[in-house]
Specification:
alpha/beta, TIM Barrel, seven-stranded parallel beta sheet, 9 helices, binds the ligand O=C(O)c1[nH]c(=O)[nH]c(=O)c1I
Length: about 300
C-alpha cells in the first residue's frame, strides 16, 4: 500500500503527523514523533520570538466529544525549535510552526528562518484562539493578505498557513481569493474551533481556567467542520497549494475521509494527546485496511474523490 504525498518537492513516506501544539513542546516529545512508526513528519509547537509560559491554571481538558484547550501559546522560543528542526531536517521533512502576536514578530521570525540553515517547511499559524485580547488573524482577510504580501517580499522557503475553521461559504471564497494570490506550499485546515465552553457536571464549573473557560475545541466534535474546510478549500485553491487536513481524527476511516475531501497529509491532535505516538501506527494500519476494503492501493487514487448526490 502506497501512502505517500509530496509538498514543495518533499516526499512524505507517510501522510500522518502531529497537529501543531500537541506532543511537540520539548525535544523529548519531538523525538518521539520523529521516531514514531507511521508518522511521516512532525510540526513543532507554534513559536514566538521569546519563550512564553502561556495561560495560567488548568488549560486543557478531555471531554466526551473531544477536547477543549486554552494553552495560551506556551512555547520555548523560536530558537529552541529552529535548532531542533535544523538538527533533524535530514531525517524527515519537518514543519516549523510560528505564531507571532504581532505582524512585526512574525516578520522578524521569518527573517531569522530565511537566514538560517533550516530548509524544511514553515507553518504560519494565523489561528490561535487563546491569547487573551488577540483575535484570530485568519478571520481578518485584509490583515491576512497584508502579512502574506510582506512575507513573500523576502521569504523564499516553503511556507504554508494554519487556518481557523470557516463556517460560511462566502468565507471559503474570501480566504481562497487571498491565498490564491500567493505562492503558498500548503494550507493546514482546521485549527481548533475557537472559544467553545464546557461545564464540569459535578461542580457546575467551566472545565478550564483561562478566559472564564472559553477555549478551542478539538476531537470528534471538529470532524464535520474539518471535512467541510478541507473540501471547501481544496475546491477553491490553486492546485499548487497542497492541503493538510486536521480535525477529528480518531481512526483510519477519519483519515480516509479527510483524504477523500482533498487532504494530502493528515495531522492528529486530540487523539494523539490521549493515546500517545503509538496512535500513528494504529491509524496507518486502519487506513490501509479501509483502502483494501475499497480496492485502493495508493492514497493518490482516491484523494478528492468524494462523491455527491447530485
Ligand atoms: O492555546 C494555544 O497555544 C493554541 N491552541 C490551539 O488550539 N490552537 C493554537 O493555534 C494555539 I497557539
Amino acid at each position: 500500500t502506497t501512502m505517500t504525498a509530496s509538498i514543495a518537492g518533499f516526499t512524505f513516506e507517510d501522510i500522518l503527523l502531529n497537529a501543531a501544539g500537541v506532543y511537540c513542546q520539548t525535544t523529548e516529545e519531538l523525538d518521539q514523533i520523529l521516531t514514531a512508526p507511521g508518522a511521516g513528519s512532525l510540526v513543532t509547537k507554534s513559536a514566538t520570538p521569546a519563550e512564553r509560559a502561556g495561560n495560567p491554571g488548568v488549560r486543557y481538558a478531555d471531554m466526551p466529544l473531544g477536547s477543549i484547550n486554552s494553552m495560551g501559546l506556551p512555547n520555548l522560543s523560536l530558537d529552541y525549535y529552529l535548532d531542533y528542526a535544523i538538527a533533524h531536517q535530514d531525517e524527515k521533512p519537518l514543519f516549523l510552526s510560528i505564531a507571532g502576536l504581532t505582524k512585526a514578530d512574525n516578520l522578524q521570525m521569518l527573517h531569522e528562518i530565511q537566514d538560517s540553515d533550516f530548509n524544511g517547511l514553515v507553518e504560519l499559524n494565523l489561528s490561535c484562539p487563546n491569547v487573551p485580547g488577540k483575535p484570530q488573524t485568519g478571520y481578518d482577510f485584509d490583515t491576512t493578505r497584508q502579512i502574506l504580501e510582506e512575507t513573500f517580499a523576502f521569504f523564499k522557503k516553503p511556507l504554508g498557513v494554519k487556518l481557523p475553521p470557516y463556517f460560511d461559504i462566502a468565507h471559503f471564497d474570501m480566504i481562497a481569493a487571498v491565498l490564491n494570490d500567493f505562492p503558498l506550499a500548503f494550507v493546514n485546515t482546521i485549527n481548533s474551533i475557537g472559544n467553545g465552553l464546557m461545564v464540569d457536571p459535578e461542580t457546575d464549573t467551566a472545565m478550564i481556567a483561562p478566559k472564564g473557560g472559553f477555549g478551542g475545541l478539538g476531537g470528534a466534535i471538529a470532524k464535520p467542520t474539518a471535512l467541510a474546510n478541507v473540501r471547501g478549500l481544496r475546491q477553491r485553491l490553486n492546485a499548487g497549494i497542497k492541503v493538510i487536513g486536521t480535525g477529528g481524527v480518531q481512526n483510519g476511516r477519519d483519515v480516509y475521509d479527510l483524504v477523500l475531501c482533498g487532504a494530502d497529509l493528515v495531522s492528529v491532535g486530540t487523539t494523539l494527546h490521549q493515546e500517545g505516538p503509538e496512535v500513528f501506527n494504529r491509524l496507518k494500519a486502519e487506513l490501509a485496511e479501509q483502502m483494501k476494503l475499497k480496492g485502493y492501493d495508493d492514497v493518490n487514487q482516491f484523494r478528492s474523490a468524494l462523491q455527491t448526490l447530485n
